[in-house]
UniProtKB/TrEMBL annotation:
Gene3D superfamilies: 1.10.8.60, Homeodomain-like, P-loop containing nucleotide triphosphate hydrolases. One of its GO terms (molecular function) is DNA binding. This is Transcriptional regulator. Pfam families: AAA_lid_14 (PF25601), Sigma54_activat (PF00158). InterPro entries: AAA+_ATPase, AAA_lid_NorR, Homeodomain-like_sf, P-loop_NTPase, Sigma_54_int, Sigma_54_int_dom_ATP-bd_1, Sigma_54_int_dom_ATP-bd_2, Sigma_54_int_dom_CS. The lineage of its organism: Bacteria, Pseudomonadati, Pseudomonadota, Alphaproteobacteria, Rhodospirillales. Residues 71-293 form the Sigma-54 factor interaction domain. It comes from the Bacteria. One of its GO terms (biological process) is phosphorelay signal transduction system. CDD domains: AAA (cd00009). Keywords: Activator, ATP-binding, DNA-binding, Nucleotide-binding, Transcription, Transcription regulation, Two-component regulatory system. The keyword Transcription regulation applies. PANTHER family: PTS-DEPENDENT DIHYDROXYACETONE KINASE OPERON REGULATORY PROTEIN-RELATED (PTHR32071:SF117), TRANSCRIPTIONAL REGULATORY PROTEIN (PTHR32071).
């Protein structure tokens, strides 16, 4: 590993002096290096190797010592992520966060940064930047580089120098921006649009995506070498529907926080509402949706009882009557409730459009109609009139 690190700095640091074929070779070499470093984070060293190491000057931090900034609950996947964060946060390792929209990827990025010694945290939503602007936004531009460039401007990487940059929706990067990001990760250099000057930067990169980057690599829309450089340490953030044991805890936390911030009484959630939110509703918007629901309940029902019928329409339409509580039926009932709730939510979202729902679920029309019949759902009831 030491030889590989040395090779990176002594050879790749001067890669701009080489011709095109040599630079391609160096890029491939760094791809292999990134894959090797990724394996090092997954594979524990042999006991003999551990005993030969020099003892660290400072004891490693455990999960219990992390500054968590709002993470609650004890889901096993979240706990595993926090264990890994405790090990990698103080390092400069590039991190790739994967998870659905609204699942809390930026929160975990901030936790990684908060538990490092780096300077500022700069967040960039690559998916929100118009085409043609991403390169200038990330790497800056010089005066006169294009129409409207009336002055030199720093990019986000220069702003984040000695700190952390969070690239949300990294799968939306344009091809040229992907090339420049790869070089920045490889040799720690950026070049402003319209300038020949190369600037060194010391930036830790945390990237996030709700897309399957491996499939994008296979489709030719995302560079394979960039994928390996970003995927040195991967953290999968589970969707809220897979963390049902945390839903009530999180919702009550959001409600109490809003009430405390605004000086209003805390509403009372009835038992049927709790069961519905914990066991049935599918949460397509994940943590973000639950936080917004907490804000709605706190402001609209300050100090009052709240029932299922008091929720916005998208929740009440997904609600079904409590099912029998026979112990042998619990798992099947909960599964069926979640399935019906998810179908109802998709039908509502797509206005009863069967083709759109089939695409969202990757199902044939015949299979979808079987599920609709099973749950007594009629698409025409969800069509806007």
């Amino acid at each position: 590993m030491a030889r590989i690190e040395s090779l990176k700095f002594k050879v790749l640091g001067n890669s701009r002096l080489f011709d095109f074929e040599q630079q391609e070779f160096m890029s491939e070499l760094n791809t292999l290096r990134a894959a090797y470093l990724h394996l090092c984070t997954l594979t524990p060293p042999a006991p003999a190797a551990i005993s030969e190491r020099v003892k660290p000057a400072v004891a490693p931090r455990g999960r219990e010592n992390l500054e968590l900034e709002g993470v609650l609950g004890s889901n096993h996947q979240i706990a595993a992520n926090l264990d890994r964060i405790a090990r990698i946060a103080p390092s400069r390792l590039t991190v790739l966060l994967e998870g659905e929209t609204g699942s809390g990827k930026e929160l975990f990025a901030r936790i990684i940064h908060l538990n490092s010694k780096r300077d500022k945290f700069v967040a960039v939503n690559c998916g929100a930047l118009p085409s043609g602007v991403i390169e200038s936004e990330l790497f800056g531009h010089s005066k006169g580089a294009f129409t409207g460039a009336t002055a030199d401007r720093k990019g986000r990487f220069e702003e984040a120098n000695n700190g952390t940059i969070f690239l949300d929706e990294v799968g939306e990067l344009e091809p040229l921006a992907q090339v420049k990001l790869l070089r920045t990760l490889d040799v720690g250099e950026i070049q402003r649009v319209g300038s020949d000057k190369v600037t060194k930067v010391d930036v830790r990169v945390i990237a996030a995506t709700n897309r399957n980057l491996e499939q994008m690599v296979s489709a030719g829309t995302f560079r394979e070498d960039l994928f390996f450089r970003l995927n040195i340490c991967q953290l999968l953030i589970p969707p809220l529907r897979e963390r049902r044991d945390e839903i009530q805890l999180l919702l009550e936390y959001f409600i109490r926080k809003v009430c405390a911030d605004n000086g209003i009484p805390v509403p009372v959630l009835d038992d049927e509402l709790k069961r519905f939110l914990v066991e049935t509703y599918h949460y397509p918007g994940n943590i973000r949706e639950l936080r917004n629901l907490g804000m709605y309940i706190a402001h609209i029902y300050d100090g009052k009882p709240v029932r299922v019928g008091d929720l916005p329409q998208r929740y009440t339409r997904a609600h079904i009557d409590p099912a029998p509580t026979h112990p042998d039926d619990d798992h099947r009932v909960v599964r069926d409730r979640a399935e019906r709730s998810h179908l109802s939510e998709l039908l509502l979202r797509h206005g009863g459009d069967i083709k759109a729902v089939c695409a969202a679920l990757d199902l044939s029309r015949a299979r979808l109609y079987q599920l609709l019949k099973k749950h007594n759902l009629r698409p025409d009831e969800f069509r806007q009139r």
